[in-house]
């Protein structure tokens, strides 16, 4: 529904003239371009006219008003960027903060229109094309200021779906204490992936109660699919590997005590042998006990 509204607004904008202003244009002479206003559209070079050129480098800093709970959503309308494994050719990548020293929020290529969500009030965005002669139509996007960074939790709505080749998932506010009464759900579903590897950061910390606050992973798109493991307390999973194109993540908390929570980086794998190799280092189930056997 959201993307339909976006495209409707875009179409209405064209009916009364081009909706894109110079405020969001890619300008190699002004890199990165800083956008602080809300609901600003920006786009790749030549968008709506022809394919983007080779050897292009565009950078933006998208900034919401400073505040404890302020965040930035980057919402894509059209997206057509050269497809490569791990998006190693032409790509769009977002970083949390004002430059590329922050955490990567994901890298996308192909036709991936899933949004980027910040953890703080700034996002550094980069679009780069190489010189191999394969270019796409590019993309257009819009900045949306939010009061709570929605990447951190789906609350009671549909799970957040990530299709990027890599990204970060964490409990709200990590490493600060998470909120009570959470039911956060994510689905990682990268096109072409045959599995995933997850690397957890320290600390991993929840209430020491398996029915109170916990993190659960399932191979599939729901909590009813094959469970990989469930973790709670200070029993960190460290490294996790999983077969399959989809991974379901569920983090829940009750109304009692709150702890620091969790954070992990995921990476899509495209070769079954690589998945098997990674799973040798996996620690699955309730702590050291295995829930799933392969």
UniProtKB/TrEMBL annotation:
<dbReference type="Pfam" id="PF00431">
    <property type="entry name" value="CUB"/>
</dbReference>
<feature type="domain" description="CUB">
    <location>
        <begin position="26"/>
        <end position="146"/>
    </location>
</feature>
<feature type="domain" description="CUB">
    <location>
        <begin position="153"/>
        <end position="269"/>
    </location>
</feature>
<keyword id="KW-0732">Signal</keyword>
<protein>
    <recommendedName>
        <fullName>CUB domain-containing protein</fullName>
    </recommendedName>
</protein>
<dbReference type="InterPro" id="IPR000859">
    <property type="entry name" value="CUB_dom"/>
</dbReference>
<keyword id="KW-1015">Disulfide bond</keyword>
<dbReference type="InterPro" id="IPR035914">
    <property type="entry name" value="Sperma_CUB_dom_sf"/>
</dbReference>
<feature type="signal peptide">
    <location>
        <begin position="1"/>
        <end position="17"/>
    </location>
</feature>
<keyword id="KW-0677">Repeat</keyword>
